[in-house]
Amino acid sequence: EAGVVQSPRYKIIEKKQPVAFWCNPISGHNTLYWYLQNLGQGPELLIRYENEEAVDDSQLPKDRFSAERLKGVDSTLKIQPAELGDSAVYLCASSFSRNTEAFFGQGTRLTVV
Amino acid sequence: GIQVEQSPPDLILQEGANSTLRCNFSDSVNNLQWFHQNPWGQLINLFYIPSGTKQNGRLSATTVATERYSLLYISSSQTTDSGVYFCAVYWAGNQFYFGTGTSLTVIP
């Protein structure tokens, strides 16, 4: 069975440009998370979905970040416009339901120059 | 929010040595996972262990939820064990909070 799939793996963009990340969770997993990981730190939650509903987005910088999970399966995370400080690894995870074992994708490493 | 502290922050081992990594958390949690982040950044599931003890090959983990800690044991370490080990706790029913991590280097 395929794991959590993210694309692209790497992205280099100039500041002020838009960027989007895509995540395909494990089949049948209803809960989807987007995490941000800065160098040398643990991942931090950006947003959590239960099916297609965003139930925890308190740490998502809504002035420039947006996310969607249409039909409760795939999800996209967008940044517009990107800033230098957005350089980090963006991780997607999924679980069957909240509070069950979570599995992470390989992440997207974003570099903003 | 909850505090999740891991110790030691850094660990260097000779190949073949054993080690114990600790995860302390400041409040009751619903579940706990241990991950290994390899040098390529992939978070690999090691254990899903809200309580009790589990073993998988050279690795084992114990969570004592009532005392708010978990331990990860690595025996006969190998160079491929190098990387960062994170514990993550599910708290207040909404998200995983990651610990501060333990960076492990195994030298041949």
Describe the SSE topology.
The complex is a heterodimer of chains A (113) and B (108).
Chain A: E1 5-7, E2 10-13, E3 19-24, E4 31-37, E5 44-50, E6 53-56, E7 65-68, E8 75-79, E9 88-95, E10 103-104, E11 108-112
Chain B: E1 4-7, E2 10-14, E3 19-25, E4 31-37, E5 43-48, E6 52-56, E7 59-64, E8 69-74, E9 83-91, E10 95-98, E11 102-107
Parallel strand pairs in B: 2-11
Antiparallel strand pairs in B: 1-3, 3-8, 4-5, 4-9, 6-7, 7-8, 9-10, 9-11
Task: Please give a structural write-up.
The complex is a heterodimer of chains A (113) and B (108). By secondary structure, chain A is mainly beta. Chain A has no helices and eleven strands. In chain A, strands 2, 4, 5, 6, 9, 10 and 11 form a seven-stranded mixed sheet that branches. In chain A, strands 1-3-8-7 form a four-stranded antiparallel sheet, with no helix packed on it. Chain A is globular. The termini of chain A are far apart. Chain B has strands at 4-7, 10-14, 19-25, 31-37, 43-48, 52-56, 59-64, 69-74, 83-91, 95-98, 102-107. Chain B contains no helices and eleven strands. In chain B, a hairpin with a 2-residue loop joins β6 and β7 (59-64). The model of chain B has no long low-confidence stretch (mean pLDDT 95). The A-B interface holds A 33, 37, 41-45, 48, 55-56, 89, 91, 93, 98-104, 106-107, 109 and B 30-31, 33, 35, 40-43, 45, 48, 86, 88, 90, 93-96, 98-101.
Tally of helical runs of chain B: 0
Structural class of chain B: mainly beta
Mean pLDDT score of chain A, rounded? 95
Low-confidence stretches of chain B: none
Q: Count of DSSP E strands of chain B?
A: 11
Unreliable segments of 5+ consecutive residues of chain A: none
Series of secondary-structure elements of chain B, N-terminal to C-terminal: EEEEEEEEEEE
How much helical structure, as a percent, in the residues of chain A? Answer: under 10%
Count every beta strand of chain A, where a strand is a DSSP E run of 2 or more residues. Answer: 11
Rg of Cα set of chain B:
13 Å
Strand fraction of chain A equals over 45%
Measured distance between first and last alpha carbons of chain A = 37 Å
Compute the gyration radius of chain A: what is it?
13 Å
Main beta-sheet annotation of chain B: 6 strands, mixed
The two chains with the largest interface, and their residue counts, are:
A-B, 23 and 21 residues
Helix content estimate of chain B: under 10%
- SSE sequence of chain A, one letter per element: EEEEEEEEEEE
CA-CA gap between termini of chain B: 40 Å
